[in-house]
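Dear colleague,

Thank you for sharing your sequence with our group. We've completed the structure prediction you requested, and as agreed, I am returning the results in plain text so they can be pasted directly into your records. Please verify that the sequence below matches your submission; if there's any discrepancy, let me know and we will rerun it promptly.
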Amino acid sequence: MAPEEQDALAVREQLFHERVRECIICALLFASLYILCHFIITHFKKHTDFAAVHDDEDAAANRIALGLCTFTLAVALGAVLLLPFSIITNEVLLSFPHNYYIQWLNGSLIHGLWNLVFLFSNLSLVFLMPFAYFFTESEGFAGSKKGIMARVYETSVVLLLLSLLVLGMGWVASAIVSNDAARRQSLYDLWDCYLPYLYSCLSLLGVLLLLFCTPFGLSTMFTVTGKLLVKPRLLEDLDEQLSCTRLEEAAVSHRISSGKASCWLNLDMELLREQLLTIRSQRLKLELRHRASPWQRNLGYPLAMLGLLALTGISLLIVCFHVLELLLDDAAMPRGMQDASLGQVSFSIFGSFGAALQVVLIFYLMVSSVVGFYSSPLFTHLLPEKQDTPLTKIIGNCVSLLVLSSALPVFSRTLGITRFDLLGAFGRFNWLGNFYLIFLYNMGFAGLTTLCLVKKVSWAVQAELIRALGLHKLPLPVARHRPLGKAS
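Please find the predicted structure tokens below.
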């Protein structure tokens, strides 16, 4: 064999081994996410929906739908980890450029992960989740033999009709927006045009949802932290308050137990019982704070609040700086990158520290958006309950989390949280090139986050100072209205 043929064969073997290695790594990563999501969904699912006591066919259909939900939730978790994993990979390759044991971390692997997440997100949103919902609601066509296959046939027909309807709407919307006459007349570019356009609309919906849920979640996280941790009080004597509360509870309890049975005391007894419950609840809160150690009472809450305040403030500063970049430099616009050239330059001006901060901010914004989503009045009913969540609610949660998580890379890049350019089809969304939309989006996030900080920090400090100085106990002024027709 000639040397040239040997070299070509060696290159082909190397490419083959790299492709097999990438497939194995992707399979292991997704299998790990799938197992983790299986335990999460099992923790919340309603076991009576999957028991074969009443109907074995319904239980089998629910188990199939539950498997599809687990797959979708694994894709959502993969979308959350996608951008942080890419940033960490780039910094590792920069720190150890010639290390043999990390050569499997390369641009081809990262690019393949982005493409797989995009593909599975489309597959889950367009086919799997609608199929799971229709499959659980189907019973088979009238006159057909009952069974799982009858449900599959009915669900497939309904899903086909729904797909035609959605694709037709996407084609009409694309024809209205686009100026290309050929695109209006042809449906041959279904995969290259209409499906990415449809997912672009879904991604825009997810990014807008993140815009409103994240600041609301930041506000909720400040409130939840104050409830979960023991808050320090200024100028307060816990022992004295606890003693007074116990004496008051004992006095009210004694009045209830020694009260005489008479008709005119019924209303007073009800009021006393309500008063006793209120005092008892206050006593339990004081005892909980009294049992907390001085470190937990005086250090835990301030550190947690300072951490939330620091992360929120840093995010706000980055977005404000990105707004200035958008006005001065066109390169600040979110763009797609076809070649993942990793390990050449850091995506942060502060090096590895800045990259680590970007990862922390991305996770922080994602957690804030999820908290804000479940705290908003529109989606509170979707909040899952332990061992008591029906399958339809699980499907709704999986779809919502997938929409939020798949929009997270675009959300982070649009706000300038990271400079890691979007890979694969994530960077081909039409609306990413609209300067006015990107600029208004950044301004909206900055305004809502600033409002959150003003509302939760300055007002909370003001209320705490008023309570510490005892001004809240002062009687409110009563406005005296002068009768008409009387002189002073």
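Summary note from our side: The longest helix spans residues 3-44.

Kind regards,
the structure core
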